[in-house]
Amino acid sequence: MSVNLFAAESETGGLKFPSIENLVEWPAYLFDGTFAEFNKIALISVLSMAIPTVMFLASGRDRVPSGLQNVVEGSVEFIDKQVILPAIGPEGFKFRPLLLSIFMFVFVGNMFEVIPTFQMPLNARMAVPLTLALLVLVVFVTVGIQSQGLGGYLKSSLFPPGLPKGLYLLVTPIEFLSTFLIRPFSLAVRLFANMLAGHILLVTFGVLCIALWRSDFLVVILPFSFGMLVALTGFEIMVSFLQGFVFALLTAVYIGGAMHPHH
Description:
mainly alpha
């Protein structure tokens, strides 16, 4: 949906800004009104999975180093050095496929915010970050049970050592909420809120640029508004990368905590 539609003049001649529904809800391409409804968000989700997959498969066939291969190898090295080793340690390399997939999926999905005709970050809809967060919950709980056993994991998660027994009546419910509810919720909300806020900012300055272009007297301000739009676009590219990095890093931290409860 073009931002021109949002800048349409109302009956009174004023500027009509889009509602939040216009920014995040999209008509169905296929299966309208059914559980399998396929719209722009679903298309971006598929592309966010397909693009990294094609990149890695294509780079694996290159016997001579190429630009694509350098990008792929650089992303793997980045996850190893900046995510796995600091958060888990060398034994965390077995989680490389998961952490790399999460990083690439979130980053590529976010980048659709600045791609013409798409102009919608995948993670500005809560369903996608929440699904990822629930996946992370399942993973670190499973790792904790495998590493410590069910009883040992529950004990280390809910009963911190060194406290007076009476305090566990207060501490244990807090630890349960923090570990099994607040962690995935905050993980999802952090990603969702950042991407939605950036999306709203870009649309707002896009609408302002169109409105100023149509104005007879305020058009002189257009270069400043357009300059801010360009700057915010660059900023959102950086935020897209950082959100992918933070999501992968926190996933690694939770996995490391499940594997090494005393650290």
